[in-house]
Structure formats: C-alpha cells, structure tokens
Amino acid sequence: MTAIPPKPKARPERVSLFRYLRLFRRDILSAQPAKLYRAWMAEFRTPFFRSYMINDPKLIQEVLKARPDEFPKSERIGAGLRPLLGDSVFLTNGETWKRQRRIIDPAFEGGRLRDTFPGIMAAGEAAAQRLEPIADGSPQEIEALTSHAAADVIFRTLFSLPIEDKIAQQVFHEFRAYQRSQPILNLAAFIPGPRWMPRFFKSETRRTARKIRSLITQLTQDRLALIAAGTAPDDLATKIMTTPDPKTGETFTVSEMVDQVAIFFLAGHETSASALAWTLYLLARYPDWQEKVAAEVSGFDGNFSDLSKLKVTRDVFREALRLYPPVPMMVREATSRSTFRNRLIRRGAQIVLSPWHMHRHNRLWDNPDGFDPSRWDTENGKSCARDAYMPFSSGPRVCSGAGFAMIEGVVLLASVLQDFEFKTVENREPIPVAYLTVRAKNGIWLRINRR
User: Fold this and answer.
1) Which residues, in sequence order, are bridge partners of residue 438?
2) Quick one: what percent of the chain has pLDDT higher than 90?
3) Are the C-beta atoms of 277 and 143 separated by less than 8 Å?
4) β-strand pairing of 343-345 with 432-434
5) Would you list the DSSP string of 258-313?
C-alpha cells in the first residue's frame, strides 16, 4: 500500500488529439498531464474550440463570484446530461436559472434543514441495519451500499418514502444503470451545434433516462394530488412544489418539477454515494482516524443540536471531499472577451474549473495528496478552505444542497461507525475514475465487522 491514497496516474506530457479524446472519454482524470497539479492556467486546443483550465484562485473568484453571468454553464457539456435532466437548475442559465433558484433555495435554508434531519437519521439507522447480516469480515463492495443509503436519504427527505417503496426501488436501480452507461463527456461536448443536432447517446442511456423520468413523473403527479387534497407531507417535494416564484407568483409545472427531481437524484444521490464510499475507504486505510471518529460518534444520540459536537467526523468528511470531490470538473463558457494571465480569452472559449486539481494543487496545499483531516485547523488549511476548496462549486451557483450534504455525510458516518468497523482488502486498492461522479474503476471493497 502506497503512502498516499490512490490517485490516477497522469498521462504523458504530449499525446495526439485523437488519443487525448479517447483517454478523456474513458476517464477524465487520468487523461490529464501531471503539470496541471502545479499550473495556474493551462490551454487546450481542438479543431472546434479552445478551452482553458484555471487553478488560480483569483481567476476562479472572477469566474464564479465576480462575473458569473458572463461565464454561464457550457451548453456543450450540458448536452450530455439533458436526456435525463432536461432543463433542470443544474443545466440552465440566465433568467430561467435565477427563477428556478428563487423557488428551490427556500427549501434548503437553515430552518428547513432541521426539518429534513429525521429523514436523514432514519436512513442512517436503516443503513446500519442493512450492514448487520454482512458484517462477517468478508469483502463487500462499498459503493453499492453507499448508493443504497444515499438514495434512501433522498426518498425519505424528498418524498417521505423509504427506499423499500416499489417506485423508489425502480428509480434507484434505473439510476445505477444510467450512472454506468453515461460517460462524463459526450460527442456534443466537442462539436458545437444546435440542440436538435444528433448527440449519439448510447441506446441504453436514452432508454434508462426515459424510464427514470417516467417514474419521477408518476411520483410528482401523485404528490400534486396529495397537495390538492390537503394531505401532503411537509417534505422537500411539497415545499418546492408549493413555493411560488416571489417575482411572478408562479410555481413549477409538472414537467419543470420532473427536471428538478432528476437533478436532486443526481446531485443528492450520486454525489453523496461517491463521497461516503471514499470516506469509508479512507477511514479503513487510516484506522487511527477511524477510531477517533468511532470514539466521537459513540456518544451521538441522534439529536440535531448535537451535530455540532461531531467535529472530527465533519473534518474527515471534508478531507474526503477534498481528495475525491464527487464532481471533478465544471465547465463555463465565455460570453465576451477577457484577459486571463495575459492571455486573450475569446468569446465561446470553454473555461474548466477543476476541484480535482484545485484540491490537490501543490502550490496551494500542504501535503496535497495526503489524507490529513487535522489540516483544517492549520493556517494553510483555513486559507485553502476559503480560496481553494469548492466541492459544491462557489458563488451564486453554489449547490443549493451543500448544507444538506454535509449533514447527510456526518449523520450516515455516525450511524454506521457506532457499531461497525471497516478494513481494507488486500490487493484491492480502488482506482479513481470519473463516470458521472468520481467512483472506483472496479468498486471499493472493504471488510466489515461489528465493533
């Protein structure tokens, strides 16, 4: 076992465009050269457009916070996810996006997070119960288990349904199939063109997206009926579906709500499952930290007010998000000319912001590739937390559910580490790759035992 957690091997410095595109489609992480971990800015040229990766904190602040309207989400990247996500808040720009955020954001404000806590706790308790029959020390694929737990959280907090519900089960299984069939980039990411242009998705990807949207439509229509009857539970779905836009007074249509629910599953299920799996792997790899977390959570009695006492658990989760950010790269498009580090950025250029490289940048972080949850109490850690840490993006487009995700991660870790310990499996070191989120090429395998 190496001294640092697994990290993809960088590609050679110079490769042909054809090979680069092949590597990129297979895995966005290992397709990049090692110099990006120290570069402030890098330029990529293709026959169709220019792209620039920026790791300079000042430039990232400019793109995400100072001038976000001038650097909207790239339509080319969004095209690859549109069969599932439609016009969700994750893909839209401009006034459409602003209207969606005005309706969605109130559901994730501080007071509402307290309301979702019982659902998260119930999902954590259910996850611990599912570990009981397999806690015999035999190798277990952890990503499947964390996907189950994260999906349970979404169903309980969004629709007040446990994962065992029939429709919830169908959505969960279809979503796992979609995650593996949909590459992080599609041909549409490289070739400009209108929305009607053929995008060459795999037939399985299209089929699964249609199935998921059909199931979500059924859930949405059922909830609308309950709202109309005055019997709907006071959960996230009800809150979002009944919140009017403060400017227009309009609520989401069924189609719009289906789009939003789809991204809640992608953002709240896929990303959380990835983060939790990597956290458990890191704790298995570094048992001294696992014991610190286990000792801390042993006194957690499930009260919302006691979450603030789980500092070590939170710092471990933050460190896992640093090393393995679920969304490894984000792409914006320049809508006007700019100058970055004395380079002219033309209209239409793609601006790549990479949490994966930013979080491991060796000119910013101390021990950038090492696992060290104590770094958050150091001056370097505090500085980087402000300027070089963006697992949920930053600025106006920061993830609405960032606070929700942090609570979910801490609660699920506390729920399983109170009664179970995790150990690595010899000769099964996971290899990080980017599917829709940062996952392991052949899964993450751990041994689980009762404490």
Assistant:
1) 434
2) 66
3) yes
4) unpaired
5) HHHHHHHHIIIIIHHHHHHHHHHHHHHHSHHHHHHHHHHHTT--S-GGGGGG-HHH
CB-based contacts of 307, cutoff 8 Å, min separation 6 = 407, 410, 411
Q: Which residues are bridge partners to 11 per DSSP?
A: 33
Query: How open is the CA angle 414-302-160, to the nearest 5 degrees?
Result: 95
Structure-token pair, residue 45: 């040229």
Residue 193's H or E segment, with its range, is none
Mean pLDDT of 378-396: 96
Nearest to 323 by CA among 381, 410, 389, 395: 389
Residue with tokens 């629910």: 261
Alpha helices by DSSP H, 65-202:
75-78, 82-85, 94-104, 110-131, 142-159, 166-181
Indicate yes or no: pTM above 0.90: yes
- Tokens encoding 434: 């980017």
Residue count of the chain, please give it. Answer: 451
Judge contact between 311 and 189, C-beta under 8 A: no
Closest CA to 371 of 309, 311, 319: 319
pLDDT at 198 over 50: no
As to burial, measured by CB atoms within 10 angstroms (0-12 exposed, 13-18 middle, 19+ buried), residue 165 is middle
The strand pairing partners of 136, in sequence order, are 449
159 contact partners, CB below 8 Å, separation of at least 6: 168, 219, 223, 235, 237
| Cα 11 versus chain centre, distance | 25
Identity at 358, one-letter amino acid code: M
| 199 band by pLDDT with thresholds 50, 70 and 90 | very low
Note the pLDDT tens digit of each residue in 96-153.
999 999 999 999 887 788 999 999 999 999 999 999 999 999 999 999 899 899 999 9
